[in-house]
Design brief:
With about 325 residues, the chain is of the alpha+beta class. The protein has 2 domains: about 280 residues, no CATH class; about 35 residues. About 20% of the residues lie in helices and about 30% in strands. The protein is built from 4 helices and 23 strands. A hairpin with a 2-residue loop joins strand 14 and strand 15. Helix 2 packs antiparallel against helix 3. About 45% of the residues are buried. Keywords: Membrane, Signal, Transmembrane, Transmembrane helix. This is PEP-CTERM sorting domain-containing protein.
Length: about 325
């Protein structure tokens, strides 16, 4: 198969594989222009936040993330050809961090910490213990004892179930899922896992714009808000850092959401490994402290109210029928 080095554009998309995401805090201008009301498959949305940590995974540092797929055109885990208006790309089937790539590159993480804001306990702990920012890592992927095919993937790769698009729409929605017991995402201090981020699907959205040009594209990649938990059995230094991070999360909403947004084009690198076609690409990541309690409570109240109204309506109808 003929493959060329491609500009990293369209997260988890290729021509054959083209991918990009970049990030900033609280939705920037590009993300703000995405019309979430047009979504039909995905209900989760990025949550604006004042507290975030910024990570970046550079290919030069053997970091980043990986999209990969079966080169057999008849295989289920091949992926699909995009049908959205102005796209013309190919969607690879699997997604994972560079640390879990089929390439076996020896990568130990997907990204390293570069900075952040409104995490006072966390950054004070780093400063007081002379811990460099780049000692803090982020990783995700299938666990080390699991097969590559257990990474986040497109499931049955069915239109309307795992992804949604139309030749008359410039939007593609895509959901990457996995067995929660087979995958992991976490923070590390050096090579030591300190905080688990739990399981969540990965939501990937593309807005291909009014033209074939890349400049009017919007690409988003994000997760559900999740509860972070401390890894058991840590030494005092690592445990203190984990506690500081979790305290800041608790003080700023109680949940964590990972968000990547395409605001720049960079180069991805094609590779082969363990029978898969692979594209490695940089990973810019925003780790946001978010709150979901208030929207959930409102939604729950509305659902309860609707249920009561519906039940009352049924009772009224039944009473009328009895009187007849």
């Amino acid at each position: 198969m003929k493959v060329q080095l491609l500009t990293m554009r369209n997260s988890f998309s290729t021509v054959l594989v083209t991918t990009t995401v970049a990030v900033s805090a609280a939705l920037p201008v590009q993300a703000a222009t995405f019309d979430f009301s047009k979504l039909q498959l995905i209900s989760t949305k990025p949550i604006a936040a004042s507290s975030e940590l910024s990570f970046f995974g550079s290919l030069d540092n053997n970091e980043g993330q990986t999209a990969f797929f079966n080169p057999d055109p008849n295989a289920l885990d091949r992926g699909h050809t995009e049908i959205s208006l102005n796209s013309g790309n190919f969607a690879p089937y699997y997604a994972t961090g560079r640390n879990a790539s089929p390439e076996n590159s020896g990568a130990t993480r997907a990204a390293s910490l570069e900075g952040g804001k409104s995490f006072p306990n966390f950054f004070n702990y780093l400063n007081n213990n002379s811990i460099a920012l780049n000692n803090i890592g982020f990783s995700y992927g299938q666990k080390s004892d699991r097969d590559f095919k257990e990474a986040w993937n497109l499931g049955d790769d069915l239109l309307g179930q795992d992804w949604l698009a139309s030749p008359t729409s410039t939007i593609e929605e895509r959901i990457y899922t996995a067995n929660p017991d087979a995958v992991e995402s976490y923070f590390s201090l050096g090579d030591t896992k300190i905080v688990n981020l739990g399981y969540t699907p990965f939501y990937v959205l593309f807005e291909y714009g009014e033209t074939l040009a890349l400049e009017d594209n919007i690409d988003l990649f994000y997760t559900d808000p999740v509860k972070a938990t401390k890894v058991a059995g840590l030494d005092p230094l690592a445990e203190g850092l984990a506690d500081a991070f979790l305290q800041d999360i608790e003080n700023n909403g109680g949940n964590v959401q990972l968000v990547l947004e395409d605001i720049a084009a960079e180069d991805g690198a094609f590779a082969f490994g363990n029978g898969f076609n692979i594209l490695n690409f940089p990973l810019p990541l925003s780790v946001r402290a978010v709150s979901v309690s208030e929207p959930s409570a409102i939604l729950g109240f509305l659902m309860l109210a609707f249920s009561g109204i519906f039940s009352f309506s049924k009772q009224q109808k039944k009473a009328k029928n009895t009187l007849k």
